[in-house]
Amino acid sequence: MDIKSIAHKKSAHGWLAYLPAIIFSTAAAFIWVIIILYRYLNFGYNEIDLSFYAQGMWNLLHGNLHISLIDLNLFAEHASFISLLILPIYAVFQHPLTLVFMKIFSYIVASIIIFQIAKEDLGVFPASLVMLLYLLFPKNVFSILYEFTFESLAPAFLVFTYYFFRKGKYLKFCLSAIIVMSVRENLPLIIAMFGILGLFSRTKNSFKWGVLPLTIALCIFLFEFRVFIPAMRSLPSYPEHYIQRYASLGHNSKEILETLFFNPIKLWNIIIEPERLSYVFSLFGPLLIPALFSPHILLLASPIITQGFFSSSMPEHSLYYYYSVNAVPFIFLALINTLYLIKRFFKNSGMYFVLLCIASLSIINDFKYRKDYLDIINNNKKDNASTCWKFIKSIPNKEKIVATYRFLPALSQRKFLFSFGKIYEENYQNPNNFKFLPLYSGNMTLPFVLPDYVNYALIDLSDQWLVSDIYYNPAATLPRVQKFFLNKGWGVLQAADDVILMKKDLDNNSKLVDVSNTPFLPEEEQISWSIDNSIALITARIYPIYSLDKDTTIVPITFYWKSLEQTNDKYLMRFIIQGAGKVIYMPWREIGYVVFPTSSWEKSSFIKQNYWLPLSSVSKEEYSISISFWNGSKQLNPYVTDLSLSKVDSIANPILIDKIKLNR
After folding, report:
1. Rounded CA separation 391/495 (Å)
2. Which of 609, 439, 617, 436 is nearest to 539 (CA)?
3. Which of 140, 138, 170, 145 is nearest to 156 (CA)?
4. What is the pLDDT of residue 489?
């Protein structure tokens, strides 16, 4: 053998062989860090999970297991003892994104170990392609785009567990298996499957590779599911509460097992339901058929796949959540094993042909989700993010706060934080729904009442959950929300457009909206415009403008309204800001805000609405502020009449409120 061939052979097994893995993992880390920072800085995380676990970690760091966001013990949600293992990291980097970055790290490490296994079995190029497919796999991408759960930390440890099992390194296998079982109470079942595989594949050492993992894992699962979590929740009925997701199989553990093992007809009818088959096809994608040729590896993922397949919970059937993400490493490990079998029987040419076909189909499959990815990244962002951050930084660190969902992650590093959603959501206000919440605890108050010691509120009036609840259930939602805003204890400290920072014990004049049966203004000032003879604008007053920051000017405006007749319509107003002879800004806003829409006004009532109009990047000159009106329920320009002058105004002839002079 000549020197060149020796050098080539060494390089194939040296660091150059890992160059594709280094490039792919570095690129993935860089791209994901940029995306995550973009979403966080623009308040793109607008569900509860990230803030829930971030507050849980912060409280755990300070010796407290209770999470005020859900009013739940950290270990009552899931038996996630991995939180104790990552606590030192969180102690150094006390930030909610620390959890998200650890999730990304686990995902990338898993891809590197998958590359190593594929490299050993298939070679460098096939391993590189498999790694790339894993990094782009839709279930992985959606899981990373989702907020955070401890379950998303498991992929790296699952692949390590398989790698050490494959290599016969028992102590390392045990260590990684222990970490896997610490992630969540359902993951010991995966280690139990390793035990079953060990019984059949390690006949000489079946006790340590089979009996021990199987026995210990099942004992841990039963203890956590039947004893530990119910004790943490103060809810002995927790297992039955969870089992209701599998009512199609049976209403208790005994009935479920009977269906699985002794009622094949009923089981088959459940299996062929379109929704469940769709779950399988979306989870596996083009890897379904190749993975089925390695059933012994899919056996390891069977508890996760089965959990999602038979559950009646919609998110567990959806590709867009984190559920079933821990089945993905085993789908790829099964793919590698199938390709290895093809290589053995059909040589490299057969293996390359199959791999390239799978890769082509996978890329097509990945491409069809591109719009969903972009929607998640962009659709929830807050346009006035810099203003929101300014408000957040103005809140003292130790203050107790209630906030809408998108602000919760940024506020999570404190002992007391509450979701504004619990004030109006049916699940937290209706006792008939409350006890059936997935996160219900026996210690929870029915219904939820915001504690008196909460002094700050940061509310996004365009919050999608708030708007959705008002739209679908106004009769229940609006009275709860209005009761909060009409509370004499709350006033607006700072505001810009639909973002309101409120504080206790402020002057009543600083309320967002006030309602009265008597006029707020003296009789002689009541010159008003009638809008469809349903509501009237008495007057609008502009107060001294001020700079919120170097780029934003706030124009405080108070509107005085009167309800002439009870109406089911929601009216909008359009601000028209003109300067230097041209229109520079025309935002639409609902009269009374989304929380006091005109459809909720009682006849003959008077409404005082404060509004803070933000003007960004405007120069030093005079501007006129006018408004026109729109019937949001009928999508028509309403008939607007000046009651004193009998003049008709419309969008073509808006009502001039005032002229302002900016001194920037």
Report:
1. 8
2. 609
3. 140
4. 81
276/311 Cα distance (integer angstroms) = 9
State the amino acid at position 402 in one-letter form: V
The one-character DSSP state at 447 is S
3 state SS of 438: coil
Tokens representing 450 are: 């915001």
- The Cα–Cα gap between 185 and 221 comes to 6
pLDDT of residue 246: 85
For tokens 């590779």, the residue is 209
Q: Read off the tokens for 535.
A: 């509501």
Question: Is residue 628 within 8 Å of 576, Cβ to Cβ?
Answer: yes
Give dist(CA 57, CA 417) in Å, integer.
13
Q: Alpha-carbon distance 331 to 308, whole Å?
A: 15
Of 492, 482, 461, 597, the C-alpha closest to 554 is: 492
Measured over the CA atoms of residue 29, residue 33, residue 35 and residue 40, the dihedral's sign is positive
Q: What is the mean pLDDT of residues 204-209?
A: 90
Please tell me whether residue 497 adopts helix, strand or coil conformation.
coil
Residue type, 572: L
- Which residue carries 């805000």 as its tokens? 593
Question: How far out from the chain centre does Cα 249 lie?
Answer: 30
For 496-518, what is each residue's pLDDT tens digit? Answer: 999 999 998 877 678 899 999 98
- Phi/psi class of residue 59: alpha, beta or left (left: φ > 0; alpha: ψ in -120 to 50)? alpha
Report the amino acid identity of residue 486: L
Are 600 and 515 spatial neighbours (Cβ–Cβ below 8 Å)? no
CA 369 from chain centre, in angstroms, equals 18
318: left (phi over 0), alpha (psi -120 to 50) or beta: beta
Length of the chain in residues, anyone?
A: 664
Note the pLDDT of residue 638: 66
For residues 174 and 203, the answer to whether their CB atoms sit within 8 Å is no
- The whole-number pLDDT of residue 522 equals 77
Residues 41-86 pLDDT 10s: 999 998 899 999 999 999 999 999 999 998 889 998 899 999 999 9
CA distance 185 to 79: 5
Flag whether the pTM goes above 0.85.
Answer: yes
Structure tokens at 140: 């992985």
Four-residue CA torsion sign, 280, 284, 288, 291: negative
Quick one: pLDDT band at residue 646, thresholds 50, 70, 90? Answer: very low
**The three-state (H, E, C) secondary structure of 26-81, written as one string:** HHHHHHHHHHHHHHHHCCCCCCCHHHHHHHHHHHHHCCCCEECCCCEEHHHHCCCC
Per residue in 587-614, is it b (16+ CB within 10 Å) or e — as a string?
Answer: eebbbbbbbbbbbbbeeeebbbbbbbbb
Angle at 332 between CA 331 and CA 337, to 5 degrees: 100
632: closest CA among 515, 496, 535, 495?
535
> Position 341: which residue type?
L
Q: What is the mean pLDDT of residues 220-229?
A: 93
Q: Per 3-state DSSP, what percentage of the chain is helix, strand, and coil (rounded to 5)?
A: 55, 15, 30
Cα angle 608-408-307, degrees, rounded to a multiple of 5? 125
Element at 199 (helix H, strand E): helix 188-201
